[in-house]
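sry for the spam today, last one i promise. struct tokens for design, 328 residues
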């Protein structure tokens, strides 16, 4: 469930030797001389530390110092259990709670009072076909009456990631992406890429700058987890809206179908203006325009409408989300 966690707590070491011992254990040898910061930035250091990026701001006469850590609890768990950093498999609250204990044992630092500055809660769903097909059906999430459009993220390859707006004022972003593509694109080893399951679709809530103080221990409180599960179901089942598609009934002709669609999308007045423009340009004949106008007038007089419904793909997607949330 938990990924991209960023924690902050006060400088935790009682003495210089204690700090130096810790830094040796976790390869914190990269130093920013001006700011007095030690960290383990770099692939080898991250892999040795099971995906943990640790940063220590050393205390000086003018500051108390601090300790921060950024990591994926899911990847950390798999690194300890399976010897590799990945997060495309299942990871429920039971595993997260076990991972928390493993993390405490690994660091030998009490993180319970650490402030959570950011975190993600997510699920991995196996879709019957390419995840891209399912994400294209997303429309918006309506939270407390506020509509948030779900847009394709232009910073990623086409159809690979969608999310609500990510502007600087957003504290929470809802994200959907092709996890199989994301995981495989990071690996050069072809054989390892093939071990990643096909059609994994990631659904997550990404919290930046929580509006209320959240301490790390809260993430493992049964009440918090139950509330999180309830909220996840609310947001990604009740509040999630899919694209609707027009449904043609037998009592509507093909011509009427196209006119009604146009009226629904751009309005009756604009539909009429567009046809008049085509007539003026010679793109359609007088006869064709008169036929259009007869159909248009009948549609308006009878207030004819088209039914809309979500696709079978959307129905499947919704079912898969419900099933996965019930398992966490």
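last one done:
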């Amino acid at each position: 469930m938990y990924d991209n966690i960023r924690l902050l707590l006060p400088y935790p070491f009682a003495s210089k030797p204690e700090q130096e011992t810790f830094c040796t254990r976790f390869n914190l040898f990269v130093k920013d001389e001006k700011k007095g910061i030690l960290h383990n930035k770099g692939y080898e250091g991250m892999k040795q530390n099971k995906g943990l990026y640790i940063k220590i701001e050393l205390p000086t006469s003018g500051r108390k110092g601090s300790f921060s850590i950024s990591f994926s609890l899911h990847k950390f768990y798999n690194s300890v259990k399976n010897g590799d950093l990945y997060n495309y498999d299942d990871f429920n609250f039971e595993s997260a709670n076990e991972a928390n204990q493993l993390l405490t044992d690994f660091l030998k630092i009490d993180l319970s009072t650490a402030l959570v500055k950011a975190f993600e809660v997510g699920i991995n769903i196996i879709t019957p076909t390419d995840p891209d097909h399912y994400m294209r059906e997303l429309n918006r999430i309506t939270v407390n009456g506020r509509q948030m459009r779900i847009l394709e993220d232009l910073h990623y390859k086409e159809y690979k990631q969608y999310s609500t707006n990510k502007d600087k004022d957003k504290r929470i972003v809802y994200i959907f992406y092709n996890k199989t593509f994301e995981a495989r694109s990071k690996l050069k080893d072809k054989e390892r890429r093939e071990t990643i399951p096909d059609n994994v679709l990631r659904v997550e809530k990404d919290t930046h700058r929580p509006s209320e103080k959240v301490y790390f221990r809260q993430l493992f409180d049964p009440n918090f987890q139950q509330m999180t599960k309830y909220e996840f179901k609310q947001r990604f089942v009740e509040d999630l809206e899919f694209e609707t598609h027009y449904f043609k009934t037998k009592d509507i002709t093909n011509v009427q179908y196209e006119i009604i669609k146009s009226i629904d999308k751009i309005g009756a007045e604009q539909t009429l203006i567009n046809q008049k423009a085509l007539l003026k340009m010679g793109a359609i004949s007088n006869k064709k325009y008169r036929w259009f106008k007869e159909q248009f007038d009948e549609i308006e007089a009878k207030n004819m409408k088209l039914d809309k419904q979500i696709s079978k793909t959307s129905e499947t997607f919704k079912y898969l989300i419900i099933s996965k949330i019930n398992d966490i």
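Residues 1-111 form one domain. ok im logging off now
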